[in-house]
Amino acid sequence: MTPPEINSPGYEIPAEIRNQVNITTLDRVYNWSRKNSLWPMMFGLACCAIEMICTAASRYDFSRFGMEVMRPSPRQADVMIVSGTVTKKMVPQIVRLYNQMPEPKYVIAMGACASGGGPFKEGYNVVSGIDKFIPVDVYIPGCPPTPQALLNGLITLQKKVETESIKSARWYGRRPIQPIPIPVLGPDLMDPRKYGEIRELARQKAEAEAQAAAEAAAPAGEPEAG
Amino acid sequence: MTEQTQTTYTPDLAARFPEWVTPDSRPGFSGYLVQREHLLDFCKTLRDDLGYDLLSSVTGVDYLPEGKLEVVYHALQTVGGPMLVFKVQVPRDEAVVPSVVSIWPGAEFQEREAWDLLGIRFEGHPDLRRILMWEGFEGHPLRKDWKEPYFEEEVKPYKSRWPDGQVERIEDRMPLQDNVQYPAGFDPESWTPDGDESLYRGLRKLLEDSGSELKTDRLIVNLGPQHPSTHGVFRMVAVLDGETIVDLKPVMGYLHRNHEKIGERCSWLQNMPFTDRLDYISSMSNNFGYALAVEKLMGITPPERAEYIRVIMAELTRIISHLISIGFLLNDLGAFFTPVLYAFEERELILDIFEAVSGSRMMCNYFRFGGVARDFPEGTLEKLRELIYERLPRKIDELDRYLTRNEIVQTRCEGVGVITAEQAISLSTTGPILRASGVPYDIRRADPYSIYDRFEFDVAVRYHGDVYDRYLLRLDEIRQSIRILKQALKDIPEGPVISGKPQWQVRVPAGESYGRVEGPKGELGFYVVSNGKANPWRYHVRAPSFINLTALAPMARGGKIADVVVILGSIDIVLGEVDR
Amino acid sequence: MNGFGVIRGLAVTFRHFIETYLEDIRAGRKRYHTPEGIAQRTSSKVTGAFTIQYPEEKMPVPEEFRYIPFLVYDEGENGAKDYRCTSCGICAKVCPPQCIWIVRTNDPVTGKPIPAPAEFYIDVDICMNCGLCAEYCPFDAIKMDHDYEIASFDRFKEHIYNKEKLGKSAAYYASIRPTNNAREVAAREAKAAKKAAV
């Protein structure tokens, strides 16, 4: 049986061969086959990971979408479901895992924490959304998103895959795709892309502190001078 | 109250050690203040002469206005009875306290945590490194004068929310559009990251002396933080001699979500949904512990029906947690997914009830101070009866038949990861780990809370202390939980589910309180300090998974690398609770 | 006997496998894609496969189910939205992660606040779906929604919900939470009657 969406309209197919021949575009076949075998990475971060496991378990069962093969190794995965709070201590590993995934790769930010920091956003060890470091394709709000909400997100991702074209795909581009620089754990999290800004910021802070110290010292110094 | 707890001997320590301790006489506080110089002697006496063999919790409190840091210890007797709390006060600028690891090895991780978050240095600690944050992080975050980059105000609610809500994403007003801050004059180019150097330094010593006649190379192997066996973002660093584990160090903090710092800013009620996210598999029992701690301070008790509902929810949670634990243990053994799927089938049915009652499958946020949020909707009790009288017992028997006598399970689990009763006590383990080693310590019996003294149940206990016994013990506990549930369902009265009117601002008198429940993973304790204001001054979680992990290295030493995965599975950690 | 335990375990899995087919045959066509079928598969009597085949069929959510909050408005004349919210600010104060921003309306003449929100924002990337705002709202104005199908491609444009996006009609509220709504309507009427009597 041919799924209806793969059959490309616009061409007149003679009635006698209508059941034997499908005319389609390469893009559609390509996208159709990719979207039905999106293998997620077995990668749980926090609470949402349990809902992700529930989605994989019998009641919701995302193998119905060709996603049953959860791969613990990034080398064999297509989708990274960032399922939970991204902490500063963990983000270097997440970026590294993302870099290790082969193209085409997709990222789903599952839940409020992965999307934008979530309820723990104000915390000192929490990254305000994984999209600060890696590009995200689909955001699923909720804390935690129920399994059906995650399935809805996965279907949304499939819709995104459908719209892509083999001609403009970045992974067939001439130039190799540069990996994302891995953040460094310093006195706080440091993005290597922002070293200049960090230095500038620290310099400003030092100046402000020096000025404040000078101001604090000035009134104390006055009586002595007088 | 049972006979046992009433007759427990609680000595008057201030009279006994007049030069070492003074009673803590601040209003609302209890216990003793111990002088720093005499701490070790005092602890030794407590353990050896007075029977306080298990040190349950060590934490610190920053009393900024008084310029003091306080280390708070909670010790208990494994024969049962209330806890003993004692404290050591030190000046903030010279925060050094002798380490009690030599007396209670279970204090190791907790002292490291207090060093990491509060900057209390423990003299004589064998391996005092940061535990939740990374080495090199600037500052000790739980100190009251330490401010995070996204700091808005000391306490919630923030003024910018109402009446003129200045809506923005907070990162938009940060200089780097991110949650970061750096010390003045810092240069990132000149920074050399620690890169776990301090962690490996301790382990490298072990690499050198293999000691055997056969010349073997020892090596360091990292498992995690992204590893399918670690149940989340947990990491183990093992020193291997061949396949044998010489030593192992757990590394955590990859899910450190600053629960306590946020908790000190939230109002009392606002913390309730945050507790859901500690041990996210058993949110109801987290609610329970926190509600108990705050109710103790407020001096209120919930109405009868609410007590029954609480017990029903807590026991259902225990069943869920143990089912998952058993399922994933089998997963770790290599029985990939079938047992987990069977466990999840039952879990889904229980979660349906949670969802119908509380509104959410996992993050129930159901308990309130003085009761629960709402009564059972119509039809819930019938559903529960069907589940508890018919389905669950049948399914637990099926699970038993399916796994228990399986020879592969037996060979892989029996005699693996053994710890003795003495070790289990000294390492401060609680819950299934402790009981599987032959110590019948269950808070529901030893220091009954809520209405547990009304139910008939046995404290499950097994004696070998290996992985297999921990598995069997969890099965036993599920059966006991079903027994409690049957009684609770039979006796549940009609009536209100919350005492007084539901309030979003509660008045909590000044004082300290430690509420503890027998969570599915062990003793879940909430240590809260109130100064009479709308939010806690200190909010600390004694997380059972975190402290049970102290036993991981002793269990794994001498075993094979493949067994570590199983041992970790049998400890049953949840990273939300380990890292908080 | 060695090996017997393994065989016995396999018998359990085999039974599960057979039951899947038996149950499908026994229940026939109405097992899938019908409300009775879903109810049967989610009850505690279920045997065999119990997968809910989302998106073709959806697991009905219970009345108390909560996801993102929404603002209830009563429909006035000409489709005017009469928000129940009085911008009292309790929800913003009780919200644990502080994800609610309310702008109170001030009377343009007197400058005094009037009980209606000029704007109301919720950042769903912070919201923890705890339901405290709905629980403590004294005017039944903010409630927890049942709609979970809100995945999006861009959070920066879409994830701070404003008053327009948060608003849903009272009829919608009554449809997702009939029991709660009936109780609240009765309570409001009783209050109004009491007020009238005084």
Largest interface (CB within 8 Å) is between: A-B, 59 and 65 residues
Radius of gyration computed on alpha carbons of chain C: 24 Å
- The portion of residues assigned to helices of chain C is 25-40%
User: What can be said about the biggest beta sheet of chain A?
Assistant: 3 strands, parallel
Average pLDDT across residues of chain C?
87
Strand-residue proportion of chain C: 15-25%
Question: For the largest beta sheet of chain A, what order do the strands appear in spatially?
Answer: 1-2-3
- Multimeric organization: heterotrimer
How does CATH name the architecture of the largest domain in chain C? 2-Layer Sandwich
Overall average residue pLDDT of chain A: 84
Number of helices of chain C: 8
The termini of chain C sit apart by 84 Å
Task: Tell me the radius of gyration of chain A.
Answer: 25 Å
The count of DSSP E runs of length 2 or more, i.e. the number of strands of chain C, is 7
Percent in strands of chain A: 5-15%
What string gives the helices and strands of chain A in order? HHEHEHEHEEH
Give a description of the structure.
The complex is a heterotrimer of chains A (226), B (580) and C (198). Helix content of chain A is 37%, strand content 8%. Chain A contains 6 helices and 5 strands; from the N terminus they run H-H-E-H-E-H-E-H-E-E-H. In chain A, the strands form 2 sheets. Chain A has a 3-stranded parallel sheet. A two-stranded antiparallel ribbon of chain A has the order 4-5. In chain A, strand 1, helix 3 (91-100) and strand 2 (106-110) form a beta-alpha-beta unit. In chain A, helix 1 (26-35) packs antiparallel against helix 5 and helix 2 (47-56) packs across helix 5 (147-162). The mean pLDDT of chain A is 84. Chain B is built from 20 helices and 15 strands. In chain B, the strands form 5 sheets. Chain B has a 5-stranded mixed sheet with strand order 1-2-5-4-3, covered by helices on one side. Chain B starts with a helix and ends with a helix. With 198 residues, chain C is of the alpha+beta class. Chain C folds into 2 domains: 1-60, no CATH class; 69-197, Alpha-Beta Plaits (2-Layer Sandwich). In chain C, the strands form 2 sheets. In chain C, strands 1, 2, 5 and 7 form a 4-stranded mixed sheet that branches. In chain C, strands 3-4-6 form a 3-stranded antiparallel sheet. In chain C, helix 7 packs across helix 8 (178-197). The longest helix of chain C is centred in the first third of the chain and has 24 residues, at 4-27. Chain C is elongated.
